[in-house]
Amino acid sequence: MTTHLNPPQEAPYMKNATFYLLDNDTTVNGLSAVEQLVCEIAAERWRAASAC
After folding, report:
1. Residues 36 and 28: beta-carbon distance below 8 Å
2. Number of Cβ atoms within 10 Å of the Cβ of 18
3. Which of 7, 18, 33, 38 is the most exposed place for a label (fewest CB within 10 A)?
4. Closest Cα partner for 20 from 38, 4, 5, 42?
5. Ramachandran quadrant class, 16 (left: phi over 0; alpha: psi -120 to 50; beta: rest)
6. Could you tell me the keywords of this UniProt record (predicted)?
7. Residues with Cβ < 8 Å from 39, sequence gap 6 or more?
8. pLDDT tens, position by position, 5-45
């Protein structure tokens, strides 16, 4: 039997989560993986706010 610390019924507010595995040694266009992700998330949220 599997025991969960926080079964879904105890935390109905937590619908989903996204986890990222980032390689810090790689750069693309001068940006690290973390910097690229931050830019992508910021752009996505800006677009979502602009659409309202």
Report:
1. yes
2. 5
3. 18
4. 38
5. beta
6. Nucleotidyltransferase, Transferase
7. 31
8. 655 555 566 677 788 777 777 788 898 888 888 999 999 99
Report how far residue 10's alpha carbon sits from residue 33's, in angstroms, rounded to the nearest whole number: 34
> DSSP string covering the chain, please?
----SS-GGG-TT----------TT-EETTEEHHHHHHHHHHHHHHHHHHT-
Residues in the chain: 52
d(CA 30, CA 6): 40
Q: How much is the pLDDT for 20?
A: 77
Say if CB 24 and CB 34 are below 8 A apart.
yes
At position 10, the amino acid (one-letter code) is E
**Residue 33: φ, ψ to 5°:** -60, -40
